[in-house]
Prior knowledge:
2 copies of one chain form a homodimer.
Chain A: H1 4-11, H2 15-22, H3 30-43, H4 49-56, E1 61-66, H5 72-87, E2 91-96, H6 101-113, E3 118-121, H7 128-137, E4 141-144, E5 155-158, H8 160-173, E6 179-183, H9 189-204, E7 214-216, H10 221-234, E8 240-243, H11 246-258, E9 268-273, E10 286-289, H12 292-308, E11 318-321, E12 323-327, H13 334-338, E13 355-359
Parallel strand pairs in A: 1-2, 1-3, 3-4, 4-5, 5-11, 6-7, 6-8, 8-9, 9-10, 12-13
Antiparallel strand pairs in A: 10-12
Helix pairs in contact in A: 1-2, 1-3, 5-12, 6-7, 8-9, 10-11
The structure holds a DNA duplex.
Amino acid sequence: MVGRVDVARLAGVSPAVVSYVLNDSHPVAPATRERVVAAIDELGYRPNALARSLATARTHTLGLLLPESANPYFARLSSAIEDAAFEAGFAVLLGNGVDSTARELGYVRAFLDRRVDGIIAVPGGDFAEGWRELQAAKVPAVSLDRLQAGIDLPSVVVDNAGGARAATEHLIEHGRTRIACLTGGEGLSSAQERVIGWRGALADAGLPAEDRRLAFTPFSVEAGHAATLELLERDPAIDAIFAGSDTQAVGTLRALADVGLRAGEDVAIVSFDGTPISDYTTPRLTTVVQPYAEIATEVVRMLLTLIEDPAQDRSRLHRVLPTTLLRRDTCGCGPAARSDAERVPALAGASATTTRIEQNQTEPKEFL
Amino acid sequence: MVGRVDVARLAGVSPAVVSYVLNDSHPVAPATRERVVAAIDELGYRPNALARSLATARTHTLGLLLPESANPYFARLSSAIEDAAFEAGFAVLLGNGVDSTARELGYVRAFLDRRVDGIIAVPGGDFAEGWRELQAAKVPAVSLDRLQAGIDLPSVVVDNAGGARAATEHLIEHGRTRIACLTGGEGLSSAQERVIGWRGALADAGLPAEDRRLAFTPFSVEAGHAATLELLERDPAIDAIFAGSDTQAVGTLRALADVGLRAGEDVAIVSFDGTPISDYTTPRLTTVVQPYAEIATEVVRMLLTLIEDPAQDRSRLHRVLPTTLLRRDTCGCGPAARSDAERVPALAGASATTTRIEQNQTEPKEFL
DNA sequence: TTGAAAGCGCTAACAA
DNA sequence: TTGTTAGCGCTTTCAA
């Protein structure tokens, strides 16, 4: 491995000068600089980032802690983050906490040990201890997608309540009146907020938000399937379901088929997330799309400012991004309706400030 | 930040002794060791991995280069790899090459600069230069999922030909005779091998493998959709399609719906990969499942042995893992058939050695 | 069994 | 404008 002494010798300068041109942190005579540059690429020299980091206390590496990167939602999210980090010149260390407090803590330590400049975390388990160690190490971190009670981490989340409200309002516009809500684990702030949006839309329309039409269950296909069957059993008259995630909605689709109900006709569905899979189902899911690219750039930007200045105004470090209702088939709009935007009037009022409505067949920035 | 000198002072020993107990690389008196251990966790001391790596030339970090981690297949794969790496005590740096040679090279350098112990790559663009730099840096690397012409990297791939053969044979068993093949970009070894399996099964059955029934197109929903329509136009009599990936099969499903053909009835489908999305479609995809966990443990294991001993026998560094045909609905087995294993006779002959047949509704190790 | 000291490859004062 | 030198926090001979 060629080191900067080799470069220095070839260029006929001292090792320090090599550093100067590398980081141009110091004035260097044009002629000298040229010789050094020439030597550098003649030898194919690349500075050792470990040594550099040890000296500068900067690794240009971020830690990304997710519950499970194979989940379509987190996969989409992590891809966007990796992209934003790459743009900013940062590499990312990825860890899946798999909803295990111990494993999450293991990754927090692995990241800290490796001296990442910052950490982005979607906490799954109990993040209290991880958060404590993060603070002790004074490493900037931002909480993504959800908030955890008692932990005042800077955060980037979407307008869950607004998105859920828009989804529910849209179902109401379709004439649905017995609208159920299927959402994630009760411990998750995102799940709770979506319920609030659902309730709000129903209340505004003078419709009841009955508890028997509400189900908290994990964000998974299986859980969505089981919960849908149970909702249907508790109230067979349900004519629409707002599902808190695309994966759950896939389970809902399956459950409806099981009992012989037609999605989008007998029971309308609107889900949340707008992951690629929402476009793979039959019929396609009408869904509240999260702005992945914006989330990613925002969270990376926030982390970088925090790295620059760790002691900045905390109040400005909580961002809520808007979502977009993407009308496809399961809400009842269907292929025919899609060609006639007028049949579904635009939403007005509260949710309009945070939720855009879109008429589209696929997510704008598809990954494939 | 507390360093080992603080620990040493508190324990009343020299800094060196702290190292000794940390790595137990040296005999230490029991009493001394105890004092050091006590000091370590009283102070919450954690060794700086950068400094340690600089001294030992080991980072316990792997670089994982993928085309695009949001793709369901790579998402599934990366999750399995992250898991295997975690088991082995390694962290992983993740990079998406997005089929760009420049970006792939950027990541190879980012990984090399950070002195990863090894690299796992699923090359998308032209990997020649990356491979050159990898060799120059003498950093072990293994090629995953596909091989690249002219590059003799250690590799872990699945039995693409065998899986494709099993898929096609299964379609033949269902009485299909005009079986088309839809597969990935012509430049990909995996795509080519799947075509070979398709041809082989047809040949064995005395069926023609007509070129008009073969299409090379990217592994994406859109491409699968367009290619299916074209195949159908070239030969409207097609009664089955072997799709080289689940994502393409989703496009096929959509195309069939477009032209009013019923999947699993008018046209049977078997796809490849066995990603979670294959279970989200309607009807569910019969698919050739890749052994994600085995692939991951194998590739990590191979990389670790290479790290231990870079100069080992190259011939043993190419592994081909078996796939499993997972019968669901699109092949024609359908829910009814699933309860009667006898209706679909087990395969015999060549493919039996590398392809297991399974009767199951979902992938065994689901991530949700 | 313990300690002193020389690296690992770089940055960054400080001198020249 | 360039060179010298002292770290960065650890491992690891080599002596004691």
